[in-house]
Batch of 2 targets.
Target 1
Amino acid sequence: MSDNHLEEAHTGPIKTPKQLLLAVAYSFILPVFIIIGLVYYVTSDNKPQAGSTNAPESVAERIQKVGSVAIKSANAEPRTGEEVFKGQCGGCHSAGTLGSPKFGDKAAWAPRVSKGYEALLTSALKGKGSMASQAGGEYSDFEIGRAVVYMANAGGGKLTEPKKPEAK
């Protein structure tokens, strides 16, 4: 009876060497990670975010308005077709990128010019293929129309410039 009593007294929750190694590892490694996590948590409040300072310029940049309203004079002269081309259309049509007809290329512009001014203006205002819609942007529809005539005439067309819309 004393032999059974001794065997039961010496058994514990760890029965294999693998369990012993895991218990030792967890008892040393786990507290180290917990301490590192606590230190990081305590000191992270004092760290400024990347790129942020309390300089007045930096604060003003972070709290600026999302959008802005630009008020244009109704009496301002509309821009010419060349000005609109340089500001809006030239990025693609100067180099002929994304399948756009290159400025001054008579062969590329001929089938487009044959469709007429209204078709060209509609394509410019609503977009076509990889060209985005130009309506509602910085330039008025009248100014976009002037740019269409400017590009088409440089490509061999003989379109007349649209008439300035009457003031309301």
Target 2
Amino acid sequence: MVDILCRQFFVEPTQPLHRRYLALRAFFVDGQSYDAVAEQFAVTYHTIRSWVRDFRAQCQAGQSPPFSPSHAWAGRSLTTQRLGNQHKRNSPPRPTIVP
């Protein structure tokens, strides 16, 4: 089976968050340099440095990155995410649609 389109999804990411994820992975996991990652993803050296800086700050603050499964909680710390049910109790009730 030829998986050209499936392979292309990983080799040529088009969605901004997907591209950022793969660029950060190339830097942190594959150990590529800022210059190599910038060239691979057709962005500037300074863009990669900003992405790395922001990602490190999010990790140190215990925040989940924007491409993680808990993106709905973006900007909240992991501690706040774990207490999410408590926050829901304090919010006003949502209207229910009855058919």
